[in-house]
Amino acid sequence: MTENAPRPAAPARRPGGRTARTRAQVHDAVVAQLMEHGYDELTVDAVAARAGVHRTTVYRRWRDVGGLLADVLDAAGDDTWGPRDTGSLEGDLAALNDEVQAALTAEPPITLALIAASFRSDEAAQALKRFWGKRYTLCEEVVDRAVRRGELPAGTDARALLVAATAPMYHQLVFLRAVPDPGLPGQAARTAALAAAAGAFTAAR
Amino acid sequence: MTENAPRPAAPARRPGGRTARTRAQVHDAVVAQLMEHGYDELTVDAVAARAGVHRTTVYRRWRDVGGLLADVLDAAGDDTWGPRDTGSLEGDLAALNDEVQAALTAEPPITLALIAASFRSDEAAQALKRFWGKRYTLCEEVVDRAVRRGELPAGTDARALLVAATAPMYHQLVFLRAVPDPGLPGQAARTAALAAAAGAFTAAR
Amino acid sequence: MTENAPRPAAPARRPGGRTARTRAQVHDAVVAQLMEHGYDELTVDAVAARAGVHRTTVYRRWRDVGGLLADVLDAAGDDTWGPRDTGSLEGDLAALNDEVQAALTAEPPITLALIAASFRSDEAAQALKRFWGKRYTLCEEVVDRAVRRGELPAGTDARALLVAATAPMYHQLVFLRAVPDPGLPGQAARTAALAAAAGAFTAAR
Amino acid sequence: MTENAPRPAAPARRPGGRTARTRAQVHDAVVAQLMEHGYDELTVDAVAARAGVHRTTVYRRWRDVGGLLADVLDAAGDDTWGPRDTGSLEGDLAALNDEVQAALTAEPPITLALIAASFRSDEAAQALKRFWGKRYTLCEEVVDRAVRRGELPAGTDARALLVAATAPMYHQLVFLRAVPDPGLPGQAARTAALAAAAGAFTAAR
DNA sequence: AGGTAACCGAGACGGTACGTCACGTCTTCAC
DNA sequence: GTGAAGACGTGACGTACCGTCTCGGTTACCT
Asked: Which CATH class is domain C89-197?
């Protein structure tokens, strides 16, 4: 979800011609606008102005705010993220949850803004779904490792386990708007690991 | 979250004078509009027209769409809802989850509309937070019963347990936009109950 | 078609409230814009800016450029114009034609602009038709006088005579874009008077 | 003003190469568009699409809509039209007026569309002036014949006579938007002939 | 026959204007 | 004098055409 790595150098002229340059400018503008003002002020006009591009150009290529977000989200999914390996299932899950908590409480709240956005644009919602689908698939590695280590029975439903571990984070921070609890990531990880070890995510289904 | 109980009869004249009548008309209009067209078309103009009240009146009393929603949500929290008693912790949790799944997949998706709304209006967000706070507090009864039955150790963190049980529902249906899985309510309930019985929600913290 | 009589005094606050004031401002702006830049630059945006009024206000009240023009034309028809009395039919017609020639060759060419406008907006076309209808009706006085003087037989078709007298002016100056010919008004008047005296506009039909 | 004469055969390759073929395609498209949708929808884009030619090509060769019209009008002037000979001045003029009335009331109103166009594009206006200049010059034959027949004195101003005869047609149908009057062509012809016979178009000037 | 200059297709872009919608404020007028 | 009705300012939306530009690929014509 991080994006704005300080672009390699040449901010004014990127390879690939005007079209590619325009796209990059708009991308950056979307992210910047989102970070500074949140989703509510993410208007096409503002993005266009910020990108130094004409309104109509944005409409032509991205159609609406949803299109802009989808583009950004898809680009965000193209990174090289992967789950850390701490040596134990609970540790891995806790590490994941720490990342989630960090993302959700970051300032400016870009992740929250994207979530909010997904409720207003079907296109953005689809993109977010794709993004999370990718992430959860990458995370299945965590479960595989645990199985290999013998911590979990084979046949464990990786996705269900991951959801059980991470869902409370989102629930508390996004739905319930609770103040961040530093113990929560660990607690949720422990709960899920414990249930998993007891076979809660096996077979049944 | 249910609302439209078949109003006692007299739709035209309620006790409390014009002010109260106006408020009720607007209330009804908000809910009706929300159900028919979703949040995106919940505009002050539409509500006012539907309620047969002048735009200005709505602005005066509710200020904006957020105010309208907050009012409706607070009213929705004034009902007599309570968790069912099935005789076992897992059963109680599963019953809760069934209700949640039903609410989230109902057509028209009024619950989803309210959640979406909460991302666009602080006032609605606060109201939703109040609403959920009330609900979770009522649900703590479920945990108390389990403790009394000896299913759970005393000192179990009721709120954490409830969140663990219900969060996966919201996560799958709202965040991940997954298709509803009829087995999920039961599975999530079982997982949480299992972890709770193992003491995952005790002491620690 | 004359308009910009130096408004009585108070340009800032007219009787009749904001609405009337707005209307007057827009009126003036339309005429000014038409005179300065012609019909092609008579855009809603420009008029609104010039009138110190917001775009949407203009759209609300006048719908489009045609509505603006119609309004102005109708206002222009409310003046106290009347044909001069020179003592003879030919003289009256020549005086009329002189006025026409003057209007069509005036600088800035506001009359031409209005004619041009009538080709682009049905509403303006209707207004122009109304305006000319009024004028021609007023001009029938000229024929009545000639009949009373015994210059013309009773039963002369006033409208046909007037058209025959004035049409060549418009044809030359508007359709054929000929350079103005100082003799034309008189010549056209003489031709029509001559034909009329010979009974060309009586009975027959 | 003629249009889709069944082109000689070879639709794929005309003499003169692609350039000439392109020009013909565009020509036809302009006329077709004008007839179907009138001037207001005569856009470069529509013409290009209709002609199966790229927008850019049209801009390169014709610059704008005015250029397209000028081209078409000039082509329309290259036909073999000539006034009919009915044997009398009044008859000739009436025949002319009948043609005018027919053209102005034809459906689709292509002539009116061209007139309207001339008010919006200087280039089209010049072309229309050329077109009418040609026509009126051809019509002077009518006057010559009348002189030869002894109906008119020599030295009659042919152009002025013709204008006097035809102008009322345009005035009624184009300016005043009156409903077509079947008697008008004859009446206008008679009036002009009468005045001419009385010497209204001689010498003076 | 081959090379070159003119022409064309393709598509993005900046730009102006359109007409609409909803918001929230402010003014007027009638009660 | 107050409050409902309605006009207004404001900002954004999404669209249509305009006219320009840059490519790259044909085509026509001329040597």
From this structure: mainly alpha
Which chain A residue lies closest to B129 (C-alpha atoms)? A176
Out of A177-191, B18-32, B82-96, which region has the weakest mean confidence (pLDDT)? B18-32
How many Cβ atoms are within 10 Å of C166's Cβ, its own excluded?
A: 27
What's the pLDDT at A16? Answer: 59
Q: Looking at residues A10-15, what average pLDDT do you find?
A: 41
* pLDDT tens track for B11-52: 444 445 667 788 888 999 999 998 888 888 899 999 999 998
- Partners of residue A132 in chain B, C-beta under 8 Å: 175-176
Would you state the structure tokens that stand for residue D43, as one six-digit string? 């856009």
With CA atoms as reference, report the closest residue to A166 among A145, A147, A138. A138
CB A163 within 8 A of CB B188: no
Q: Are B108 and B35 in contact (CB under 8 A)?
A: yes
CA-angle at D120, arms to D114 and D121, nearest 5°:
85
Residues of C in contact with D170 (CB under 8 A): 167, 170-171, 175
Contact criterion met (CB below 8 Å) for A101 and A165: no
* C191 pLDDT more than 70: yes
Q: Which H or E element spans position A121?
A: none
Nearest to B125 by CA among A202, A23, A100, A115: A115
- What are the residues facing D202 on neighbouring strands? D156
Q: How far apart are the first and last CA of chain C?
A: 32
Domain boundaries, chain B: 17-76, 89-197
Residue for token digits 């991470």?
Answer: A166
For residue A161, pLDDT beyond 50: yes
How far A55 CA lies from chain B's nearest CA (Å)? 23
| DSSP H or E run through C106 | none
Which band of pLDDT confidence, cut at 50, 70 and 90, is reported for residue A171? very high
pLDDT: which is higher, C49 or B116: C49
Sequence-ordered alpha helix ranges (H) in B38-121: 44-51, 55-62, 65-76, 89-105, 110-118
At the topology level, CATH places domain A17-76 in: Arc Repressor Mutant, subunit A (1.10.10)
The one-character DSSP state at A50 is H
Q: At D203, is the pLDDT very low, low, confident or very high (cuts 50, 70, 90)?
A: low
Closest residue to D183, CB basis, from C116, C191, C205:
C205
Chain D residues whose C-beta sits inside 8 Å of any chain C C-beta = 39-40, 115-116, 119-120, 125, 129, 132-133, 160, 163-164, 166-168, 170-172, 175-177, 183, 187-188, 190-192, 194-195, 198, 200-201, 204-205
